[in-house]
Every structure is written in structure tokens, then in C-alpha cells.
Design goal:
Elements lengths: L1 E4 L1 H8 L6 H12 L4 E5 H15 L2 H14 L1 E3 L3 H7 L7 H12 L4 E3 L13 E2 L1 H16 L1
Parallel strand pairs: 1-2, 1-4, 2-3, 4-5
Helix pairs in contact: 1-2, 1-3, 2-7, 3-4, 5-6
């Protein structure tokens, strides 16, 4: 399964934000174990860096965390085509529309976010980290039968 990992999920992991950290940690374990392929974008990592730097007051530590994240996730970026398609979306959230267009172009299975309602309607269904873990568990059970 190939999924886009939204900015808030990455921040939940790196900042160990409760009560979200436990599920997000398990999700990233699945990525590290190659049970799941995670994608993100340069824009999302830029936003993650901004939040981490602002809270940690350390360029070096925020940078190290971004680099560690890049070892787990595929980093893709939007094209001019994606950008133009965002203006035909039904929602007005430009950043979420960019994620939707990128996920659609890459033919990803899901967008993993805590804010799934922000992606409705979307070409690619948004699910929570917990829902993603549940789908993975079900697919593994089906494969074992």
C-alpha cells in the first residue's frame, strides 16, 4: 500500500504529540519494515521544519529530524500540472489541494492525516493513522488465509 503522510502526522511523530504518538509510531514502524510505502512532499517537510524549529529553537536538531524522516519516506513534489489542477478543486484549502493532486498523480492509495475532513471531497481517500493500521492488519490477515 502506498500512502501520502500528511504534515500533521509527521509532526505528531517527531514532536511525540499525545494522544496521537502511539498510532503514528506504529505507522512509521510499518513504513520502516516495508509493509507500507510512505510519501510526503518538500512543502510538507518545509512546514514540519518550521514547526520543529519554532518549538525546539535549534536549526541543527530540526534539520536532523527532517533528514531522518527523509530516510523513511519518499519525497515527491508537485508539478505545474498539479498546481493548475488545484484551482478546479471544490475546497478552498490550497495546501490540502496540492496534497490531493500530488497523491492523485502518484496514484497513491490513501492520504494519511488526522484531519481527514480537510480532504473531502478528494480523488484519494483520506484516512487516519489508526484506520491505516487497521487496513494493514486486515490485508495481512487476508494474505495469511
Amino acid at each position: 500500500m502506498r500512502v501520502y503522510i500528511d504534515t500533521n502526522v509527521i509532526i505528531d511523530l517527531l514532536a511525540q504529540r499525545e494522544p496521537f504518538y502511539k498510532d503514528v509510531f506504529k505507522l512509521f514502524e510499518k513504513i520502516a519494515d516495508n509493509h507500507l510505502i510512505g510519501y510526503t512532499s518538500v512543502k510538507s517537510l518545509s512546514d514540519v521544519y518550521y514547526v520543529l524549529h519554532r518549538t525546539m529553537h535549534s536549526h541543527e536538531e530540526a534539520g536532523r529530524m527532517i533528514v531522518r524522516t527523509m530516510t523513511l519516506l519518499q519525497v515527491a513534489d508537485n508539478t505545474d500540472f498539479d498546481l493548475l489542477r488545484t484551482f478546479s478543486c471544490k475546497t478552498n484549502d490550497f495546501e490540502d489541494n496540492l496534497i490531493t493532486q500530488l497523491s492523485s498523480r502518484l496514484m497513491l492509495d490513501y492520504i494519511v492525516s488526522r484531519n481527514v475532513k480537510d480532504f473531502d471531497p478528494s480523488f484519494v481517500k483520506a484516512i487516519t493513522p489508526k484506520e491505516c493500521l487497521d487496513i494493514l492488519e486486515l490485508s495481512q490477515l487476508s494474505a495469511e488465509q
